[in-house]
Amino acid sequence: MILAHMLAAALPALQFPSGGDVVHLLPELIVGGGFIITMILDTFVPPSKRTWLAVWSLGVLLAAAAVTVSDWITVGAQQISVYADSFSYDRFGLFINCLILLAALFVIALSPSYLERQKIHHGEFYSLILAATAGMMFLGSSESLMMVFLSIEVLSLALYLLSGFRRGNAKSQEAGFKYFLMGGFASAILLMGMALVYGETGHTQLPAIAQVVASDLQSVDPLLLTGIVLVFVGLGFKVSAAPFHMWTPDVYEGAPLAVTAFMSVATKVAAFAAILRIFSVVLTPLYTHWEVAVSAISILSMLIGNLVALRQTNIKRMLAYSGIAQAGYMLIGVAVSGSAAIAGVLVYLAAYTLSTFGVLAGVMLVAKGDDDSSSYRSLRGLGHAHPYVAAMMALSLLSLAGFPPLLGFWGKFFVFASAIQNGQIALAIWGVLTSAISIFYYIRVILILYSPQEAEKGAPSPWFAPARAGAVVVGLGVAATVVLGVFVPVVYHLALSARDALLVRIAAP
Amino acid sequence: MTSGFSWLTLVLLIPVLGAVAILCTPRREAWLIKTFALIAALATGALVLGLLLNFSQAAVTGSPISFRYAENVQWLPQIGASYRLGLDGLSAWFLALNAVVFLLGVVVALVRGIDRPKLFFGLLILTEAATAGVILSTDLLLFYLFWEGMLLPLYFLLSSFGSEKRQRATLKFIGYTVAGSLLMLLAIIYLHTQSGGSFSYEAVAARQTTAQAVVTVPGLGWKLLTPDQFAFLAFALAFAIKVPLVPFHTWLPDLYESLPASGLTFFAGIVSKLGIYGFIRYAMTLFPRSMHDFQGLLLVLALISILYGAFMALQEVDIKRIVAYSSISHLGFLSLGVFALTVIGLHGAILQVINHGIIIAALFIIMEFVEVRTGTRDRSLMSGLEKAMPWMYFLFMITALAALGMPGLNGFAGEFMIMLGAFEANWLLAVIAGIGVVLASWYMLRLHQGLMHDPLHKGTKEGMTDLHLRERWILIPLCAVMVVLGLFPNIVGQLDQGSVQQYIAASHVQHASAIISQAHHSREVHA
């Protein structure tokens, strides 16, 4: 019933698309269209020629990336409403687009050889990745609760399928099913929260909600607060913040490496975009009401993620817990809710994207079997057998651990700095102490990579030689963490202009 | 941007370029890699020497510490971080020591040979750039970047070279250091909020620190410390771990035991001195009031380090660990000279930084030469080596005497000045530190006699040779420096150009003004 009301509220916006609006969604539409065409192409391409599907998908993503970059230049500092506030066309969305496209490009560039070796080279892989990418990009620019929900459904459905992509493998099936069940719950909770917010404010469009919230501060209805909390829970599930993280380690472990690499990175980026748009901008007038809850979730995520990661013996599971902890650090930026914090979170997202991907891509390049190759024991001695791959992984791990001058340091730096500037010193100290814990599990993996191998001489190598193209791509990503770490003003400048674009309409309603 | 050529950037750039050149050289061209490393280390050394010779002519800028060769380039203007470098009379000596010990590290590695030279030399001179950056930066964020970034090449260096124990030891070292320095990062950010949005040393030193409210535990009302005191403690912790002062020293013996001499020359020579440097440059001058509040605590830690290190050195049988513990004891001495907050004590500490850097490097090199020849590090399994090794006997003798503070050698002048400075602060400090000197003579002479005198130990390997010519030529210059600095210790003082006075003045300025204002206040009350 209420859903019908919400749709009715959202529909008028969709009925009268003005001509220019389509143009503003071009990057998203290119990827979305690419998804459909890939699905059709798949039926014509013979199994032996599936690498061409990867090439085609790369072309689609590159085209979308080119449009995104040119949009970045043309849009300037404005924030343009698309389809009557369903989406927002601004540099913030474009920044998020860039990160998501980067992740997708990396994954697809590495996938053909990986999928071939794992004997799961099906064409759906590419179309599903494109579908998820499109959903994430839409989420990054969503300016209405309806669109947030629909985008999350698009990306989730694709990811449910991708998690179970190793069809013959029980773990992978479990991952797909678990993610589907838990994700279904989370979506229901999110929708419930949105319904309550809609019921209280009478709007689904974020700018309109912002106006209601800002004008009516005295009488905050408990139902509205309940709705806000439920929305946060739903989004917290997507960024895998504790205590909504239960699915993460199992799904990351069961999903094929390529999917783990993609979703651990891109989902978090997209969901954080929604959190920033909703909480750091629209709901700031109610800041005092949700501050404690978000801080608590942030503290809990840092604690659980870092402590449990210490005990892991599988790199996928370790990165799942590390990702939970990293979500906690980024939530510091949400919990302190300053304009500096938003830029800090954006830098953090960029660092997290490059570094997490660097680690998993390293495993992807050499993995023989998905389950075996990601255990710590099988990574022993990789540093001697494939020094290049191991060096890339080591640098990425050090970036995740936050060593300067790598980009990962700057993410932490800007987030902690914003916390201290806003007087939330306790959060910053907690973040620092838990980061000190995190050093141990990141460095432990590096030690394993460079420790001598136990296998006897003459035994076949437990690794494949890395594919040349893939190795170059990973090298580019890792080079970016180093170079952008040294020339961090570049990233920070981009993050600042994305941040400014996000605040345009709040500053001048 | 100051006029003139950016000499200090060149000091950082030469090692980095050397590392890039080594990176681009194929692994099989080992001779080329070694040449590059030697050239980079020599060129940096020559440049630093040139800077020191022209030091008094260079333009002076800044307060409370005046810097020469200053550089300032906007870097992250949004948050007030800049690329600022500068050299003063104090950091000049650290820079000189830095250049010397890394050159020494390269030479020792060339003489002793090292497997995987590309990795070793590349990381070695990259570390030199990072440590030089720590010494040169005059912007707190830049300082932190070098301070923490130094761990990257060090980590790979420590974990790739040395005995089997190194992995655990390295992890311990990195974990300790990172935990300490991350808190310092928070303190740096806090100072940034206090200095009007700038990370520059000058702006932070000039910030308003009076009338700070004491932080209380919310809900309970317990009074803790002022924010400035918390920030000071964060800095002090980071530096105390690096020095290390005693309760934070546990990473040191294991790590030193596992490292080869080529790594130890620069690790024991400069990396641990950077903690001392941090205390002088940052803890003392940025938090004068807190420095006085916690002076007693720091002095006690320094004394404990002196005695604890000495006693541990006495009970060890492993010759490398004896030297490692003696290093803890000597670094306690250095810290004592700094924490006494007197001009003569600080002079002594700076002199002793150079002395200890050279002595400890020589000692570790000698221990490795002994280990290679006897095949053991157990003190009880060695004796009578003098017969086979007269050169070793002689050079080890000089080094050991310098280490225990024999007059006429360089250790004496530094320790004497530190004792004087400590005496000025409190006579009891000098007395307790004196016990450390006595213990030092005991374990050093016992080590030398035990190894060198008496008949040859039965289980000793056949056919031991004396130091080769090349090995001798590593140690002879070091011993020569020990003699020269022992006879003319004022060489170190000449470069200073009033810097030590500036540091001591800066560490007293607010304290003094607080006393004066109190005096004014009481006078008004009386009136």
Give the uncertain stretches of chain B in residue-range form.
511-519
- The assigned structural class of chain B equals mainly alpha
DSSP helix fraction of chain A: over 70%
> How many DSSP-defined strands of chain B?
3
Structural notes for this entry:
The complex is a heterodimer of chains A (509) and B (527). With 509 residues, chain A is mainly α. Chain A has one domain. Chain A is built from 23 helices and 2 strands. In chain A, strands 1-2 form a two-stranded antiparallel sheet. In chain A, β1 and β2 form a beta hairpin. The model of chain A has no long low-confidence stretch (mean pLDDT 89). Chain B is mainly α and 527 residues long. Chain B has a domain of 203 residues. Chain B is 72% helix and 4% strand. Chain B has 22 helices and 3 strands. Chain B has a 3-stranded antiparallel sheet with strand order 1-2-3. In chain B, β2 and β3 form a beta hairpin. The termini of chain B are far apart. The interface between A and B is medium-sized, with 32 and 29 residues.
List keywords for this structure.
heterodimer, A: 509 residues, mainly alpha, two-stranded antiparallel sheet, 2 strands, 79% helix, globular, B: 527 residues, 3-stranded antiparallel sheet, 72% helix
Write the topology of this structure:
The complex is a heterodimer of chains A (509) and B (527).
Chain A: H1 2-15, H2 19-24, H3 26-44, H4 51-75, E1 79-82, E2 87-90, H5 91-118, H6 124-141, H7 145-163, H8 170-201, H9 206-215, H10 222-238, H11 247-254, H12 257-282, H13 287-310, H14 315-336, H15 339-366, H16 370-373, H17 376-379, H18 382-385, H19 387-401, H20 407-421, H21 425-449, H22 468-486, H23 488-507
Antiparallel strand pairs in A: 1-2
Chain B: H1 7-24, H2 30-53, E1 60-61, E2 67-76, E3 81-87, H3 89-112, H4 117-136, H5 140-149, H6 151-160, H7 166-194, H8 201-205, H9 227-242, H10 251-258, H11 261-271, H12 273-286, H13 288-293, H14 295-315, H15 319-339, H16 343-374, H17 390-404, H18 410-425, H19 427-452, H20 469-487, H21 490-495, H22 499-526
Helix pairs in contact in B: 1-2, 1-4, 2-3, 2-4, 3-4, 3-11, 3-16, 4-5, 4-6, 5-7, 6-7, 7-9, 7-10, 9-12, 10-15, 11-16, 12-15, 12-22, 14-15, 14-19, 15-16, 15-18, 15-19, 16-17, 16-18, 16-20, 17-19, 17-20, 18-19, 18-20
